[in-house]
Amino acid sequence: MMKSAWQHKLSGLAALICAMSVAMSAYASHGFDGEAQHRLMTASYFAFAHGLSIIVLARVSSAKSNLFACCFMLLGLVLFSGSLAGAALFQSSTILAPSGGSILILSWCWVAVNFFRLKKDDQS
Fold first, then answer.
1. Residues 49, 77: Cα–Cα separation, whole Å
2. Radius of gyration of the chain (CA)
3. How far is CA 108 from the centre of its chain?
4. Residue 106 belongs to what domain range?
5. Which of 56, 102, 57 is CA-nearest to residue 79?
6. Using N-to-C axis directions, what is the helix angle for 64-90 and 97-117, rounded to 10°?
7. Does the residue 24 lie in any domain?
8. Fewer CB within 10 A of the terminal residue: the chain, N end or C end?
9. CA distance 16 to 77
């Protein structure tokens, strides 16, 4: 079964996010303590889990709705994990984290709807 270009590119980007999350976790373990460490570890956990999820979801279906769900998840991840990592590394605000978390929740709901609507013929 052929995969479209967006599936390959999004999977590659998500794999890089997973790699970055492992590095971020190691950096948090050895370079921080207290609240900063907690924020950076949380950001790395979410980045790894959602990066891996995007890889899997990008391979499930080439439907445009699935592409939008993956991109929406990526946006939520950047806002959530990016906000927490920014706070840990640069003492910036976490003001974007709640929006990112809400987008992640909504993207998972979108994924659920896509699965409920998926027909056997659409799995390519």
1. 10
2. 16
3. 11
4. 5-118
5. 102
6. 160
7. yes
8. N
9. 13
| Tens-level pLDDT at each residue, the chain (124 residues) | 567 889 999 999 999 999 999 999 999 999 999 999 999 999 999 999 999 999 999 998 888 999 999 999 999 999 999 999 999 999 999 999 999 999 999 999 999 999 998 776 555 4
User: Which residue type, as a one-letter code, is found at position 12?
Assistant: G
> HSE of 111 in the Cβ direction (CA atoms, 13 Å)?
20
CB 79 within 8 A of CB 97: yes
Distance, in Å, from the CA atom of 101 to the CA atom of 80, rounded to the nearest integer, reads 6
- Residue 2: the pLDDT is 63
Q: Are 55 and 93 in contact (CB under 8 A)?
A: no
Q: Is residue 124 part of a domain?
A: no
Paired tokens of 62: 């080439």
pLDDT at 22: 98
Q: Which two tokens stand for residue 69?
A: 């769900």
Per the structure, the count of domains in the chain is 1
123: in domain: no
